[in-house]
Amino acid sequence: MNTLQTLNNNKSFKLFLLLAGFFITNTLVAEFVGVKIFSAEKTLGFDPFSISIFGVDNLGFNLTAGVVLWPVVFIMTDVINEYYGMKSVRILSYLAVCLVFYAFVMVYLAMDLSPNDWWQFESGKLSADPSNHIVDMDLAFNGVMGQGLGIIIGSMVAFLVGQILDVAIFHKIKKITGEGKVWLRATGSTLVSQFIDSYVVLIVAFYIWSDWELSMVLAIGTINLLYKFLVAIVLTPLIYVAHIIIDKYLGADLAKEMKAEAAN
């Protein structure tokens, strides 16, 4: 049997490819859609909140669209950690960061390309037409895709710090509790990593890079953390669903063997 046939028949390898692909894709998409700010309250159909934190008033759950996917990334981290160990998660995290930076370099190169005539009808203007027809597609493209360097660096620093903490705390809890209490190690590690993630990205991108007031950074970070905290708890049952599906796919013996090896 040749190497390709061996890999095709290897369930653990095929599962890793699927999980790794999903993990990296979610990370990339979260970065690109993060440029959009949305109102969580309006999305759910009720009036925005008016919260005061650290002396900052009229705060609501106005979040980047990326936060919809980041909890999924951290759940994927815990699933991969459970079956493949800390080293695999770290390799995927470093790879994801490199690919995000590569993707943004390609985007910035695309932004510098000269638009043709029908792509850019009227330089520097957006249409006031009620139909919201965009006159200058080049301006719109650059405005949406051209995220600031500070945000990219802040997001990736936060991602790496969060990932390193996530895998370390996950294994600490597992050594204490054993195979049981999946919810505790998965949710516990995710909550701690997202606590760090919520503040690090804002501190790097806006406090250090853009001279925001620290109170503003902490206030917005707290709002982000509250949202991520709620989402992490709501998504906890998905951890069990993922375990059931993966254990069934791998078979009890192989799943047990992989978990034991990953814990070492």
Account of the protein in words:
The protein is mainly alpha-helical and 264 residues long. Helices cover 71% and strands 5% of the residues. The strands form 2 sheets. The chain has a two-stranded antiparallel sheet with strand order 1-4. A two-stranded antiparallel ribbon has the order 2-3. The radius of gyration is 21 Å and the shape is globular. The two termini are 31 Å apart.
Looking at this protein, list some descriptive labels:
two-stranded antiparallel ribbon, mainly alpha, 71% helix, 264 residues, 5% strand, Arp2/3 complex 21 kDa subunit ARPC3, single chain
Helix-strand pattern: HHEHEEEHHHHHHH
Radius of gyration (Å): 21 Å
Q: What would the principal axes of the Cα set say about the shape?
A: globular
Structural class: mainly alpha
Main beta sheet: 2 strands, antiparallel
| CATH architecture tag | Orthogonal Bundle
Strand content: under 5%
Q: How many β-strand runs?
A: 4
Overall tally of structural domains:
1
Helicity level, as a percent range? over 70%
The count of helical stretches stands at 10
Oligomer: single chain
Write the layout of secondary structure elements.
Elements: H1 3-8, H2 11-33, E1 37-39, H3 40-43, E2 51-53, E3 56-59, E4 62-64, H4 70-111, H5 137-145, H6 149-177, H7 182-208, H8 214-234, H9 236-250, H10 252-263
Antiparallel strand pairs: 1-4, 2-3
Helix pairs in contact: 2-4, 4-6, 4-7, 4-10, 6-7, 7-8, 7-9, 9-10
Give a brief rundown of this model.
This protein has 264 residues and is mainly alpha-helical. The protein has helices at residues 3-8, 11-33, 40-43, 70-111, 137-145, 149-177, 182-208, 214-234, 236-250, 252-263; strands spanning 37-39, 51-53, 56-59, 62-64.
